[in-house]
Design a protein that fits this description.
This protein is α/β, with parallel strands linked by helices and 337 residues long. It contains ten helices and seven strands. Helix 3 packs antiparallel against helix 5. The protein is elongated and about 130 Å long.
């Protein structure tokens, strides 16, 4: 007995083959002449060869543990990424070490300030005790002790002197009283590190006028502890040269609480003789700095100068002179006539 299932299946297969739209792909060269078949065959063989080669390369790459060529723009799969990661790790460690060092230095500075303040307080107590012991027999001191108004004035003055001494000790711990060179990285902490006034000289090591400015600032810095005096190599601090719009050297910029309050470009206004602009007295620069509030300085008037001459007191300042080794002694009053 014939199977109806088989005959039905054969009929469905024949019908599927007749209606299959992908059937021509089984013989892509059907309907072509010999030349076209040969051309298509060459193209097909070339494509198959390139696909096979690409697949073999992929297999080799996967077998070796990577499927891409390592470079700076690729995924982190090789030595280049490892080297970059190691460098970044070193940079993080260096930054952390720098931060810890700064914290340690700040802690040490604070400890020094505390010790200096304590020492000043102890010395003042000892001086007060000694003074009280020496003046027991003084009627004048007894009178002061009995007058509450005079006692209040004396206590106020002692308090002011104590505050001034503490402030002086703090400034000295921050680097006041000296003329120092700082780097670009140190510049911002120096200007914003607690000092009210900072005078920064931007210089070039080969400029003669910068050497003149250095000469005078070295003399001024130890005399005025209210202001910090620093110098910055303009070649090594391009960021701040651009930020502060420095176009002429030397440039002396005065900061108050981290903000620019005034600047001196070159020797503008310092020389008395326009024909000899590089020759000016140290007092001229002190006078300019006093106008910014950075230091306290008063030019002696004629009456004081005359009294100094009568007493034989003739303080002398310094004037730079490249002709005789760097400096000339010049009478104090002659520069302000």
């Amino acid at each position: 007995m014939p199977s109806l299932q088989n005959s039905a299946g054969a009929g469905k297969a024949a019908k599927f083959q007749a209606a299959n739209p992908l059937g021509p792909m089984a013989n892509p060269f059907e309907g072509m002449d010999d030349d076209e078949k040969e051309y298509q065959k060459v193209v097909s063989d070339n494509i198959n060869k390139r696909l096979t080669t690409a697949m073999d390369e992929l297999k080799d790459k996967h077998a070796s543990g990577t499927n891409e060529v390592d470079d700076d723009d690729r995924a982190p799969t090789g030595d280049t990424y490892k080297a970059q990661y190691a460098q970044m790790a070193r940079q993080r460690r260096d930054q952390q070490a720098q931060v810890e060092q700064q914290r340690a230095e700040e802690a040490s500075r604070i400890q020094q300030l505390k010790e200096e303040t304590k020492r000043i307080f102890i010395n003042e107590k000892e001086n007060e005790t000694a003074a009280a012991s020496d003046d027991d027999d003084s009627d004048y001191d007894d009178l002061l002790d009995e007058d509450p108004e005079l006692e209040a004035i004396r206590d106020k003055r002692i308090h002011q002197m104590r505050e001034a001494q503490i402030k002086h000790a703090e400034n000295m711990a921050r680097g006041h009283g000296q003329y120092r060179t700082v780097s670009q990285d140190e510049f911002l902490p120096e200007c914003a590190g607690g000092s009210e006034f900072v005078a920064a000289h931007f210089f070039h090591k080969e400029f003669e006028r910068c050497k003149i400015m250095d000469h005078h600032l070295k003399l001024i810095a130890p005399l005025h502890a209210t202001c910090k005096f620093i110098r910055v190599d303009a070649e090594k601090a391009p960021f701040f040269v651009s930020k502060l719009v420095i176009k002429t050297l030397p440039s002396l910029i005065v900061f108050q609480d981290g903000k620019v309050v005034d600047r001196l470009t070159g020797f503008d206004g310092l020389a008395k003789d326009p024909k000899d602009p590089d020759r000016w007295h140290t007092g001229r620069l002190q006078q300019w700095l006093s106008t910014t509030g950075a230091i306290e300085y008063t030019v002696p008037n004629e009456e004081i100068q005359e009294e100094m001459r009568r007493l034989g007191i003739t303080p002398k300042g310094t004037v730079w002179s490249g002709m005789n080794g760097g400096v000339d002694d010049d009478e104090y009053d002659s520069d302000f006539e």
